[in-house]
Design a protein that fits this description.
about 300 residues; binds fe (ii) ion
Length: about 300
């Protein structure tokens, strides 16, 4: 059976930050390492400001009427809200709440995981108002199948996907299944998912990458690593034997708890839960404190070739 669950953080809290500021630097590094090894860091309440009136607004809306898509997403860099149509005061308010939320999470991580703030890309945040149970999404978009994250439009080029989640549901937990660590999954399934083929196709991928970069196409700066991870996401979701038989750890994140996880390395499925808010960061390989634990490094070792250039 897999041997991990979450690690509760009790030496950092809102609004004061580190309980022992003089140890903050060392603790930040230690937490980075835990995350990179595949641990989930857990806070029983958000370690950043999330005003009660904002939470209530998010819970009170009739989301189906706002014609929402899979989730509402917010791009902090451009101040753009996506996934909800219509105009008006409610949409403006929603954007203001996400703008605020995003700024709070960024300020929190600049302190809590300070080593990463030197070189990260602040990715999207999202609000997830639908119940994960019975969503009826197409297979590759289903959240209730165990998978690792990879984004078609935002290649990480060996960097890592860090996500901060908060369960906003006042009564129900958000339930996840996780399974074995990335290295075990990769050793078992990477070959079948096409790792060798992608690694050996370096000429084609290098050419595509060069042209994509020159022409400025989004998503074309994909390295063989990015291509493998996109494929691995789909491969795991399509693999019914894996979904059925893999060892599972059920995690119930209680109302208002917050958890941090590298979702490119920790395979996960959201089984049930409604109303979560989340901010994503892409962490550059240069600032990882345990680079040998990164999926990219693990896959390169298995393939015997570089996957990023
Ligand atoms: Fe995911």
């Amino acid at each position: 059976m897999p041997d991990f669950t979450w690690i509760s953080v009790d030496d950092f809290r809102q609004p004061s930050g580190w309980v022992r500021p003089e140890a903050g630097q060392a603790r930040a590094r230690a937490y980075c390492e835990m995350l990179e090894r595949g641990e989930i860091l857990f806070f029983s309440e958000p370690p950043f400001k999330l005003p009660a009136e904002d939470r209530q607004f998010l819970l009170a809306q009739q989301w189906a009427e706002l014609r929402m898509h899979k989730n509402v997403s917010y791009r902090p860099g451009e101040d753009v809200l996506r996934g909800v149509s219509g105009a008006g005061a409610n949409v403006d308010r929603l954007q203001a709440i996400l703008r605020n939320y995003s700024a709070e999470v960024i300020a929190f991580l600049q302190n809590f995981l300070a080593p990463y703030a030197r070189d990260w890309i602040i990715d999207f945040s999202s609000f997830r108002p639908f119940d994960e149970e019975s969503r009826g999404l197409p297979l590759h978009k289903r959240n209730d199948l165990i998978h690792v994250d990879a984004f078609p439009s935002r290649p990480t080029r060996g960097g890592r996907i860090l996500r901060v989640f908060t369960n906003l549901n006042p009564a129900k937990p958000r339930v996840w299944n996780t399974t074995e660590r990335f290295e075990l999954l990769a050793r078992q399934y990477a070959e079948d998912a096409g790792l060798q083929r992608i690694a050996e196709d370096s000429w084609l991928s290098r050419t595509l990458q060069d042209w994509g970069g020159k022409l400025g196409f989004r998503g074309m700066g994909r390295t063989p690593y990015d291509m493998f991870m996109l494929g691995f996401h789909d491969y795991l979701k399509e693999n019914t034997a894996f979904q059925k038989e893999c060892p599972k750890i059920r995690m119930e994140f209680p109302p208002f708890s917050t958890w941090l996880v590298f979702t490119d390395g920790v395979a996960h499925a959201a089984m049930s839960g409604q109303y979560a808010i989340e901010q994503t960061f892409l962490i550059s390989p240069q600032v990882l404190v345990a680079p040998e634990q990164a999926p990219c490094r693990i896959l390169e070792t298995i393939a015997g070739r570089p996957l990023v250039y």
